[in-house]
Amino acid sequence: MNSFPLFVGLRYTRSRQRTKFISVISLISVIGIALGMTVLITVLSVFNGFQREVRSAMLNSLPHVQITGFGEHLAEWERIAAAAAKQPHVVATAPYVSAQALLTNSGSVRGAFLIGIDPARESRVSEISGHMRAGTLADLRSGEYGIVLGAPLARGLGVRPGDRVVLVAPQGQVTPAGILPRLRQFTVAGIVDSGHYKIDSSLALVHIEDAQRLYRMGEQVSGVRLKLDDLFRARQVVRDLLSVLPPNVSIGDWSQFDPTYFRAVELEKRMMSLLLFFIITIAAFNMVSSLYMMVREKQADIAILRTMGASPGEVMRIFMVQGTLIGAIGVGCGIVFGILGALNVAAIVGFIEHLFQVKFMPQDVYQIADLPSELQAGDVVLTAVVAFVLSVLATVYPSWRASKVNPAEALRYE
After folding, report:
1. pTM of the predicted protein model
2. How many CB atoms lie within 10 A of CB 36?
3. Which of 48, 149, 227, 341 is the Cys-Cys partner for 125 at CB 3.0 to 4.6 Å?
4. Residue 92 near residue 99 (C-beta atoms within 8 A)
5. Are 228 and 237 in contact (CB under 8 A)?
6. 186 Cβ partners below 8 Å, 6+ apart?
7. How far apart are CA 147 and CA 144, in angstroms?
């Protein structure tokens, strides 16, 4: 391999330019590429962390897979649970009853999503028992009408463990005075905080037998929850279950329970990545102007090299080496600072919030209290490759112009 273009290109990179403006533009190109990569890697890591936290918070109280009966009524659920338990990757099953309700206390009224659970089985299919602020799921005993509330819901009602709330079931009962809603007094047995504000703000857990009596379901349940050994195999398990379970049941996985969050985050991640890639593109193509002016400055040198026997291709490679080195420096700095930013984003954001007395992540909007970050090697590699390729492409035109310099014309006025 001919090392002549490499040697001259590196020599030009180290030499001082007669026109300081060219050096400034080259420096701006390096800073632009590095800054664009730093921001892009950090933002992608934040989006990855956000997806992880939202998914984790949701799965604290939601199952990996859920089998629901027609009209929220499922008879012979034991047979269906047994059939589901035989499937690969299913590690536990638990029945549940779900219904809408109103909770009232001292004039405060809140809508609630009521879930009747079997406390012993529920701890096998969800992580909610590990997020109890007060009390335990075992405090829910059949016939005692205890209730566990999400922390935001408990705050809205102004209740603590031991207080009483009145539950209003929407299904009415016929009386001589007309149809009246069914009322039942419950004792707050515990407070749970799964970390997902939207779920916790309406979550109410009771014993499954209390829910069956209240909603007059007899021995029926609303459905069966499943826990898998790998949550990312949920869709495969759903497909397998569709072929073995009766057609009068519906099956959904965790990604279908509240897809709005995942779709919104994925869309925001793609759009933000696209915008930041444009920043890197602009910074990379700043190199076009700096290299073009470099070619104009070095016309006499190019002419001398040509008269000494350098081919147009070798002249072109000289300036491509110089531009590629500038791009490589920017990419290297971007990788280093991007990784540092992604690993310390919580501290950086915390400092800015403290300095300006602002809150970038309100929990009632973003469902999480702190800004998360998850650095993935694939994001770093993809960002680095794209930035480097753009840098190399930006060197092609100025280098081609250098190869077309006429030695006689260049030396006429020297």
Report:
1. 0.63
2. 25
3. 227
4. no
5. yes
6. 145, 146, 147, 164, 165, 166, 167, 206
7. 9
